[in-house]
Amino acid sequence: MKLGEGVEAAIHCAAMLAGVDGDATISGAAMAEAFGLSPSYLLKHLNMLSAARILESVSGPAGGYRLARPAERITLLDIVLAVEGREPAFRCGEIRRNGPVRLDASAYVKLCGINVAMLKAERAYRAALAEAKLSDIVAEYMTDADPRSVAAGCAFVARHQRPRKSSS
Amino acid sequence: MKLGEGVEAAIHCAAMLAGVDGDATISGAAMAEAFGLSPSYLLKHLNMLSAARILESVSGPAGGYRLARPAERITLLDIVLAVEGREPAFRCGEIRRNGPVRLDASAYVKLCGINVAMLKAERAYRAALAEAKLSDIVAEYMTDADPRSVAAGCAFVARHQRPRKSSS
Ligand code: FES
Ligand code: FES
Predict the structure, then answer these.
(1) C-alpha–C-alpha distance, residues B28 and A112, integer Å
(2) What fold does the segment set B6-87+134-160 form as a domain?
(3) What span, in angstroms and rounded, lies between the C-alpha atoms of B97 and B58?
(4) Which residue of B91, B98, B112 sits with most ligand 2 atoms within 8 Å of its CB, as the best mutation to test the pocket?
(5) pLDDT grade, residue B35 (50/70/90)?
(6) If contacts are CB pairs under 8 Å, which of residues 37-56 in chain A contact chain B?
């Protein structure tokens, strides 16, 4: 089982966007620079976050991305599902029906117990991700990460954020 | 995020082997037939379960597979890790270190908070799988699945199990 690498990038970008002033934006290129990623690779994931209405993209010369709602209302589950899709990791192929003895569909109305147990574990995973708010991730970063890293991160945001144009 | 299809096959085979009498075995070919899978595909996963000491393989004409320990002491976590590997699904690529500001390694002694939160959710997933004993899966199948399916499954096991030779 493996999550795509885009999840790490997507969460880091959302956390960075939680640090901008007001409704300022940061460009995809700047975020790609911040994490040493290819801009086109990152763009794909930023677009997924926009499609899921976690980010808002603003076009034009002062354009870029910002959070579509407060970081208190964005969870790691929102981000993981936006990037990885909503399907469960365990996908029952109904192999119980493939054997030599053919029973009609009425014998399989109940979900297979193995599927039930696997999906129950996934609910525990998702519940844990749903408890992790982006705002908490950012608050913990500010207090717990190395101060040099926090200072560099904040300076990067200050330098790259683009205030919303007053005319818009 | 997706689990390999082998997980479904591996759990079904282990559950079937929990139903044999004493230390009888069932061949890989019979289990492949039971679930409509290619024998070579299934063999790969049966070998993974054997390597993880969940199954024991017995060679020779009366050979096949049996559980290496009682079903009470086999969990879905054991099986999932045997088939999917023990690495976490979320693999931190340390992208926090890739930015334009280079800090020395001492700034990154603590795990990234995003990594910590993702691994915490995986612990919840694994804990739920660790609670699901193979013996419970089988007991629930016997009481809750459609009686026609249970009867067909038990008949299949009775027909295909190979008693251990008294000489061995
Ligand atoms: S038939 Fe898919 S998990 Fe049992
Ligand atoms: S650097 Fe990998 S999760 Fe933050």
Answers:
(1) 22
(2) Arc Repressor Mutant, subunit A (1.10.10)
(3) 50
(4) B112
(5) very high
(6) 37
* Torsion angle of C-alpha atoms B76, B81, B87, B88, degrees rounded to 10: -10
Domain ranges of chain A: 6-86+134-160
Span A6-86+134-160: which CATH code? 1.10.10.10
Do B46 and B71 contact (CB within 8 A), yes or no? Answer: no
A 123-162 residues with CB below 8 A of B? Answer: 123-129, 132, 137, 140-141, 144-146, 148-149, 152, 155-156
pTM: 0.93
The answer to whether the beta carbons of residues A27 and A160 sit under 8 Å apart is yes
Q: What is the token pair recorded at B11?
A: 């759990």
Mutate to test the pocket of ligand 1, among B7, B12, B137, B140 (most ligand atoms within 8 A of CB): B12
Reported for A17-20, long-range contacts at CB under 8 A and 24+ positions apart, including other chains, are: A17/A55, A17/A65, A17/A66, A17/A67, A18/A67, A18/A71, A18/A134, A18/A135, A18/A138, A19/A138, A19/A153, A19/A154, A19/A157, A20/A66, A20/A157, A20/A161
What are the tens digits of pLDDT across the range A15-33?
A: 999 999 999 999 999 999 9
Tell if the CB–CB gap between B8 and A90 is shorter than 8 Å: yes
The per-residue pLDDT for range B117-144, each reduced to its tens digit, is 999 999 999 999 999 999 999 999 999 9
